[in-house]
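Follow-up to my post from last week.
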Amino acid sequence: MKDLKHLYYFEKLLDDANNELVRKAQSEGRKCIATVCENVPEVLMDLPGAFTVRLRAPRTGSMEMGTYYLTSLLCEYSRALLERAIEGGYNFVDSIVTPDGCTMINRCIENMELLKTMGKDKENFFYEYMEIPLKADDNGLNLYVLQCRNHILKPMAEKLGIDISDSAIRKAVEEHNKICRLINSIGEYRKENDPRITGYEFHIITLSTYVAPKDMLIEKLEETLEELKTREPDKKNPYRARVVLVGSEIDDVDVVKLIEESGAYVCADRFCYGSFPGREEISINDTEDALTQICRHYMYHSQCVRYMNQDKIQERRQYVRKLAVDHNADGIIYEQLKFCDPWAYERMVGTKVLRDEMNYPVLSVDRPYAVGSSGQLRTRVQAFVESIEIKKIQKGAAK
Amino acid sequence: MGKEVGSERLGDLYTGGKVRRRREWRGLRDTMYDYGCWLKIIGILGKFMLLPRNIRGFFRYRWMSNYLAVPMMVDRHTAGLRGPQLRIAHTEYDLIVKDVAQLLGKLFKGDRNIGNNKAFSDKVVLEDENEMTVFMMGFRNLEGLSRETPAVYVPVLLNQDAVTHYIDIAQEFGLAGDVCPMPEAEAGVSMDDDFPILGSCAVQCNTTCDGSLMGNGVISKRLELEDGIPCFQLVAPIRHREDDVQEYAAQDMRNCIKFIEENTGEKWDWDYYFECAKRVNESTRYRAEWLDISKTDYPQVIGANLALYTETNYMAVCGKGQAFVDADRKITKIAEKAYKDKVMIVPEYRHRAIIWGVQAQYYTEFLPWLQNCWGILPLTDMLSMVSTRVLSEDDREKAYYDMAWLNENMIMRNRTHGGYKVLLDELWEICDEFHADMVILWEHMSCKALDGMHGQFEEKAREKGIHLVWASHDLMDPRVIPRQNIRDDVNRYMRSVMREEPLDPSLEVLDDAHSW
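User reply:
Got it. Predicted complex:
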């Protein structure tokens, strides 16, 4: 396929946490609020005068300092972030809001705070730790609203002078939804049998919306969507299977690239930093305050594995199944970052349920943070693709 | 060999086999007392086995065979003790043994696989092992029973290899090998169909850690979807010291009680709740007194038994039994007298240590080893530093917040979660309070909450001039880090940094790899 006009531009944004658009927005006086988890409603940090970025550590090499503080037994995402923070890679950030979600990320940010890695010359810099509901119910919603008010909105208003009124929040939701519509429209092309966008390209585009001021991406996203309408797919489909990629955080585009190079087209992305459910539109009405509606959306739409009630657990598997059906997937890849406790369990049970109860071929893998050109992972995916092909042949023969 | 502390070379008792060469000789009086207690434990076990359904349970459940090692477990934890400490330890352990035997008997009574007494089972609410069972403090006619406690938690105390089979089962099922072995083993028991099945409903919680929360999902899948036992997931906010999470926790406590009422037909009884609250308060007062004594030059109630007893008293019992308060009273009396008499636990106190982190469940007698081998006095430990908040004894509304508070401040998680202050900063405050010069830091390698503060512990200890000794382990899997490796962590530090010789050299290297 012909290269997408702006793909290189989007890709460049991923090279550095302090990317071109972050610098531009800050030069205009906007405040950058960092976060590390999808459970912090990003739309509340995208209020007029501010913008949010979700921290990554692109081009991670050594993690020795992060490993000293966190040991080699914590996931590499947390270690890589801490390493980058110690190196000064997040000095541009004006404040950080983190959930006390998974323990490892919490410890990572606490170490950042204890080591005074950020905010040295920013007197209004704040570290905020949020409590996130563990069940989706009314009680959880009350908590969520209170936490967002106390740990996002209040410090933003008091320390950074950001307008946190209902109207400002509604405006942010509108902007957020605009991005979601664009990403979803682009993502729709992944449903085609001969897709005109690769999973790799889509991941780059989606990822850029997490790490840069969203409003500054709209024009290029619109042009990309327009370009896709007439983009010709390859004459010969290079993929031998279609897979849904499910799992813990993936901010390394090489993961999807490696999978696709191994013959499996990533037709849906259900992981942190993916479009499902992170780029689902937030629907709000005029009768209830915007904050409550946003929290309700995040709580009920979240597919985070920390939600522990059985209804929510079952819903997670149905969600994956629905993605597989909608995107005509042949199989599912469950992945986790090594040492990630929540996803270790989710991957195990999800694999079992999707494979044994829902009859999908499932590949279950753990991986390092920066996957590079992992031969091991490549071999696993190649074998998985072959097994799917064999199953297809066997089914055909049986018919 | 005699009645004086430190008169026996304790390491010589190990043979390399399951049992030791002979019982420790503690002088005539203490030996007879200890032997009498041993006979009582044998009596409890014998009585337990008289019931045919318990025999069936013994052969039905793989983990039951570990209970053969109960007397040896008590012996390990009382090694080297004399006089008042021996009596304190036996008061604690013997009560725990009795409590666990009763728990097992009740589980088998209602178990669909064994006793299948439906009327009894309908009165049972299954409890998570890792929770304060406060939500049962107002149900006089119900039985709150934990399946994980006798299947996973206790067996590892008895026999270090007790749950390796279940860990393997979970990993064969596809669970990553780097998670905490405790929820991993619990999930493994569930997968292996090795839990008794009973109860009208179950209450799980997210206390302890991410692994525990997720492991519960595996267990509740079986309970709810296969066994038809509805589960309530009780939330304990992670940042438990924050004011803005307390209402959330209290409301979920209300929801939990309502859930139990709906599923059992029983009504919450405030009179019973306040009875229990009074007992919890009384235990707290006694415990505070023990800790105060430990701040002096003559500590009395310390070590592994303190942690295990506190866990049982607060988590499993939570004011629902008078026997524990009676034991607290007895222990306090013995300790007060021993303090006045300036009784020493070992011949020489070389270091006053705070034991921090999550203990190796397969080596809880490491604490007596520290005092016997190196003269390191384990003054108190992280698990014993549970909340000392006094519960309201008459205010119903406040009671919900008290219950929520206790639940949030479950033993261990009150330190491992809730922000770095409770784990890191408060350790140094405790060191000051107890005049400790040393911290023995259990590094449970799969505990991300602790590992995530590794560097900070090192730096702060250096700053404060406290000797920090890491003792690495893998909680319930001695195959990863055997007991001798844990001892070697200390041995190395004591010889190379402190330049000291052991009090009892026979304990430095022990052949206890197969020992019960």
